[in-house]
Amino acid sequence: MEGIGKYRLEVKVTADKLEAGILLRVDEEDLDALLLREEDIYKELHKQRVTFGILDNVVKDLCALPRKYANAQATIAVGIQPVPGKDGFIEYPYLETVKDEEGPKELEDGRVDYYNVTAIPNVAKGQLLARRIPADQGKPGTAVTGEPIAPKAGKEAIIKPGKNVVHNAERTMIYAAIDGQVSFTDQDKMNVFPVFEVNGDVDFGVGNIDFVGTVVIRGNVLNGFRVKASGDIRVLGSVEGAELHADGSIEIKSGIVAQDKGSIVAGQNIRTSFIQNANVTAGNQVIVSQSIMFSSVRAGKQIICKGAKGIIIGGVLQAGEKIAARVFGNTSATPTVLEVGVKPELRQELVQIQKELQIVYENLRKTDQGLNVMNQILQTSGELPADKRMLQIKLTNTRLVLEKECKTLEARKKDVEAELKGDSPAAIEASHVMYPGIKMTFGKLVHFIKHEYARTRFVVMDGEVTTATLI
């Protein structure tokens, strides 16, 4: 570099092009005689295509105080970070009316009705249920080389219509096609089901219930009875050793005392105050406000027991993502098994889909081979014999069926892969204390708790169970 004194300027741009550094290489004996000119610095920057976000104060400082910057890299230009887009989401306007209706109601004579405190989210035919809000594309940034940096676009929300609903032409809104109750079923599909209400207990006077819709029970479900619903099940009382099965969610206000009888199964969520000696399975979440005692509880994603008591003692709990409670175990070291991080049903489904896709691909290949033969005969002779024409029609129809099956399988494969890929690290969280006697399983990794832990989160890092203190 020309000028007074011997020196060399090196400009380096970071890989993301959001920052440029400058390094003044100079020998100690040349420092006192060194004279840097601003134009030389700008010339070197432009030579390296750094044209944006140049820090003029650093350029001036470098010229005035070269000793300060000698043989040490300094930031000379800073770009503008792109602003990532916000994810799209689904609004549910019908829920606003439900919120307004919750809580005890005052009767005409001034008394308060404490028996009907649960609002059933009933909707009317034609009512707007869901509205898709599009993702934001974000704001571009600018590199130090002057180039625009594309932002990461937000992820679009998917609106999934189920039964008894209709969507608009743009598929951005869902409306109720009948009067009934909203229920979410497999893969978060939104449905409206008719509602069947029981104004007391499910006992010998009512019998077992199997309803294509949502069931609301304003009393208890007694030992030995069965309630099945294609929508949700709402129980304002308690559930004993009964069988409840809902494709949607199950809410039990007073709790479950099963005495190791019956089972509670929901395609989506199960919410209750306590679970005791019960067998409970939810496709998504199990949310308990008080306690889970000596029960078998499974959840596709999370088991949460973090109310004022929030205690889990005994039994076996399995969740795909997380098990969280205020207290695990007791001072007597009661054996309790916690298993997280495994979604066997999803992985098994993915293997099955891949096998089915291979069969479909092979059948498509054979079908296309047959159609190609028909086309060659047609091009050679100008027409097809009657039997070959029938075969061509049959092969064409077969191909349409296979294409439709292929698209369905590929779409489901993409959903399953996204769900498995999007898994956050499986965790077990004790927000107050975890006592000895707990057996943890993270996939195939087993860890035993031999002393007390306070406010601790357990996760697997680099093949080992590690802990972090919860704030």
Give a verbal description of the structure.
By secondary structure, the chain is α/β, with parallel strands linked by helices. Among the domains are: 8-78, no CATH class; 89-136 and 152-190, no CATH class; 346-407. It is 23% helix and 36% strand. Strands 15, 17, 19, 20, 22, 23, 25, 27, 29, 30, 32, 34, 37 and 38 form a 14-stranded mixed sheet that branches. The radius of gyration is 33 Å and the shape is extended.
Keywords:
alpha/beta, 14-stranded mixed sheet
Strand percent estimate: 35-45%
- Strand pairing plus helix content: what structural class? alpha/beta
What gross morphology would you assign? extended
Count of separate DSSP helical elements: 7
Largest β-sheet summary:
14 strands, mixed
Overall pLDDT metric: 87
Provide the low-confidence segments as ranges. 100-104, 111-120
CA-to-CA gap between the ends? 55 Å
Please give the radius of gyration in angstroms. 33 Å
Helix content: 10-25%
Pfam families: FapA, FapA_N
Organism: Brevibacillus choshinensis
Protein name: DUF342 domain-containing protein
SSE blueprint and pairings:
Blueprint: E1 8-13, E2 19-25, H1 28-31, H2 38-47, H3 56-64, H4 66-69, E3 74-78, E4 89-91, H5 94-101, E5 105-106, E6 112-113, E7 122-123, E8 128-133, E9 141-142, E10 148-149, E11 165-167, E12 173-176, E13 180-185, E14 189-193, E15 195-198, E16 209-211, E17 214-217, E18 226-229, E19 233-235, E20 238-239, E21 243-246, E22 250-252, E23 255-257, E24 263-266, E25 270-276, E26 279-282, E27 285-293, E28 296-299, E29 302-305, E30 311-313, E31 316-319, E32 322-328, E33 336-340, H6 344-381, H7 386-421, E34 427-434, E35 438-442, E36 445-448, E37 453-461, E38 464-469
Parallel strand pairs: 15-17, 16-18, 17-19, 18-21, 19-22, 20-23, 21-24, 22-25, 23-25, 24-26, 25-27, 26-28, 27-29, 27-30, 28-31, 29-32, 30-32, 31-33, 32-34, 33-35
Antiparallel strand pairs: 1-2, 2-3, 4-8, 5-6, 7-13, 8-12, 9-10, 11-12, 13-14, 34-37, 35-36, 37-38
Helix pairs in contact: 6-7
Pfam family, one: FapA_N
Protein name: DUF342 domain-containing protein
Domain Flagellar Assembly Protein A N-terminal region: 10-186
